[in-house]
Write a structure and sequence with these properties.
Blueprint lengths: L1 H9 L15 H14 L3 E13 L2 E7 L6 E7 H5 L10 E11 L4 E11 L2 H18 L16 E6 L4 H13 L4 E6 L7 H13 L6 E6 L13 H9 L4 E5 L8 H4 L2 E2 L3 H8 L3 H35 L1 H4 L1 H43 L2 H6 L4 E4 L24 E5 L4 E5 L10
Parallel strand pairs: 3-5, 6-7, 6-8, 8-9, 9-10
Antiparallel strand pairs: 1-2, 1-4, 2-3, 4-5, 11-12, 12-13
Length: 428
C-alpha cells in the first residue's frame, strides 16, 4: 500500500509535466478525461436526423447541422424517442438535449440524447419572426440603406439553382425585354445544409467583380423548410454588407423570407425580377421616338417663330429702305447746317453793329472830340515850385498866377502861353 502511495506522489500533476521518462498511466488519463467531460453541462442543439436505428432499448442517431456539412453520432434510450407524439423519421428537424459521456473501460466518447423534440412549422415561423424583429431593430431593413438599381445594367449577376426554372425564367424574360443584357450565372444549392455557404460564396464573388452592376438571388417556390436558407442570419448580414445592389426573387408572392426585407429590391417572382432589373426595349424605343417627335416639333416651332420675327424685322421701313435713314439724317444735317450758318451770320452782324455802336460811344467820350468842338486843355508848363508838377491840368485860376508858363492843347495841336492872372467864374 505504501508503494502505491509513493508511486502516486511521483506522477506528474498535469499532462504538460509528463515525459517519456515519467508518463501517466492510461488509467489516470482516462479518469481525468471522464472527470472533465462529466463536468461539461448538457446543451440543446438543433439538427436534422439523417440516420436512426433502433436496437432493443437503445437507439442510435446521426444528427447533421442545418447549414454545414457537420454530423454528430448520438445514442438515446428508446423511451426518450417514444415520448414523441409524432414518431421521428429520417429528415426530421429536431432540437435535442445532448450530454457528453466518456466510457472509461473502452475509452469511447458518446453523445447521449437526454431529450429530443421535433421542430414544427410554428416553431420555425416563430424563430424567423424573432430574427426578423432583431435585425429590423439593428436597422438592417432601413430604407436609407437601400441602394438604387442602375437604369440599364451592363452585366447582371444571377445566383440560382442548377438548371432551375427560376434561372430559365430570369434569362428568358430579361432577354425578351433587353436582348443585349449579359449575365454572370453562379449555380448553387438553393436548399439543404450547403445552400447558405454556397449562396454567400457566390454573392461575395459577384460583389467583388466591378463589371457586375446588380445581383439577383432567385429561387422557385417551395415549402417553408426549403426556403429556410434565405432566412439565415449569416446570409442576411452578407447581403446587407454587399456594395452591389441585390434583388431578392425567392418563391412566389406569398413567400416572404427575411432576404426580401434586407434586399435592395424585392421581386415577387423570378419573372418579376427580370422585368424590374432591365427596361423593355420596345417601351424605351417608343419613348425615344416620342422624345424625338417632341424635339422635332419644338425645333420646328422655334424656327417658325424666329422666321416670323425675322420677316417682321425685314418689313420695317428702316430695313426695307435703309437709305431713307441716311437721307433723313442728311436732310437734318443740311437743315442744321443752314440754321447754324444763319445764326452765325446774324451773330456776326449783331456783334459788328454793337462794335460800331461801342466805337461811336468811345469816340463820343474821347477828349479829342471835346477838343474838336473848340475846347482846349491847359496844363502847367513851368518847373518851379509855384508852378506845380509839369503836365498838371489847370482846373482853377489859382493854379496859374500871372507869369505862369502854360501849355495849351487844342484839337489841331499844342502851343505855349503865359498866364496874366484870372478870376473865378461865378456859379450860375
Amino acid at each position: 500500500m505504501s508503494e502505491d502511495v509513493a508511486a502516486a506522489t511521483t506522477l506528474p500533476a498535469t499532462a504538460a509535466e509528463t515525459s517519456p521518462d515519467n508518463p501517466w498511466p492510461l488509467q489516470l488519463l482516462s479518469q481525468k478525461l471522464k472527470m472533465h467531460i462529466d463536468r461539461a453541462p448538457s446543451a440543446w442543439i438543433e439538427g436534422q436526423v439523417i440516420e436512426m436505428n433502433r436496437r432493443g432499448t437503445n437507439a442510435y442517431l446521426t444528427l447533421r447541422d442545418i447549414d454545414a456539412e457537420i454530423s454528430l453520432p448520438a445514442s438515446a434510450w428508446t423511451k426518450v424517442l417514444d415520448r414523441q407524439e409524432i414518431p421521428l423519421e429520417r429528415g426530421s428537424r429536431v432540437v435535442a438535449l445532448i450530454k457528453a459521456e466518456f466510457w472509461l473501460k473502452t475509452g469511447r466518447l458518446n453523445m447521449s440524447v437526454k431529450d429530443i423534440r421535433p421542430v414544427g412549422l410554428g416553431d420555425l415561423l416563430a424563430r424567423i419572426e424573432r430574427l426578423r424583429h432583431a435585425l429590423a431593430a439593428e436597422g438592417l431593413f432601413s430604407d436609407s440603406r437601400k441602394k438604387r438599381l442602375p437604369l440599364l445594367p451592363h452585366r447582371i449577376g444571377l445566383i440560382t439553382g442548377r438548371d432551375s426554372d427560376a434561372k430559365k425564367d430570369v434569362l428568358r424574360n430579361a432577354a425578351l425585354r433587353w436582348p443585349a443584357v449579359e449575365f454572370d450565372i453562379r449555380e448553387v444549392a438553393v436548399q439543404g445544409n450547403t445552400a447558405v455557404a454556397q449562396v454567400i460564396a457566390a454573392l461575395r464573388a459577384l460583389d467583388a467583380d466591378p463589371a457586375v452592376d446588380v445581383i439577383v438571388i432567385a429561387r422557385g417556390g417551395g415549402s417553408l423548410e426549403d426556403l429556410l436558407p434565405f432566412s439565415n442570419e449569416e446570409l442576411i448580414r452578407a447581403v446587407s454588407a454587399a456594395a452591389t445592389p441585390v434583388v431578392s426573387a425567392i418563391g412566389h408572392e406569398a413567400d416572404r423570407p427575411i432576404l426580401d426585407d434586407v434586399a435592395d429590391l424585392r421581386a415577387s417572382t423570378p419573372t418579376d425580377a427580370a422585368k424590374r432589373i432591365v427596361p423593355d426595349v420596345a417601351e424605351e424605343l417608343a419613348r425615344v421616338r416620342q422624345a424625338r417627335d417632341q424635339l422635332r416639333r419644338g425645333v420646328t416651332r422655334l424656327v417658325e417663330r424666329e422666321a416670323d420675327r425675322l420677316a417682321s424685322l425685314r418689313s420695317r421701313p428702316v430695313l426695307a429702305s435703309p437709305e431713307v435713314m441716311v437721307s433723313h439724317r442728311h436732310d437734318d444735317v443740311e437743315r442744321l447746317k443752314g440754321r447754324s450758318q444763319a445764326a452765325m451770320t446774324t451773330a456776326v452782324v449783331r456783334a459788328t453793329d454793337q462794335l460800331v455802336h461801342l466805337k461811336a460811344q468811345v469816340r463820343a467820350l474821347s477828349p479829342q472830340k471835346t477838343l474838336d468842338r473848340g475846347y482846349a486843355v491847359v496844363q502847367l508848363a513851368g518847373t518851379g515850385p509855384a508852378a506845380g508838377i509839369r503836365g498838371d491840368v489847370v482846373r482853377h485860376p489859382d493854379q496859374a498866377p500871372p507869369g505862369t508858363p502854360l501849355a495849351v492843347r487844342v484839337a489841331a495841336g499844342r502851343f505855349t502861353a503865359e498866364s496874366t492872372g484870372g478870376q473865378e467864374t461865378a456859379e450860375e
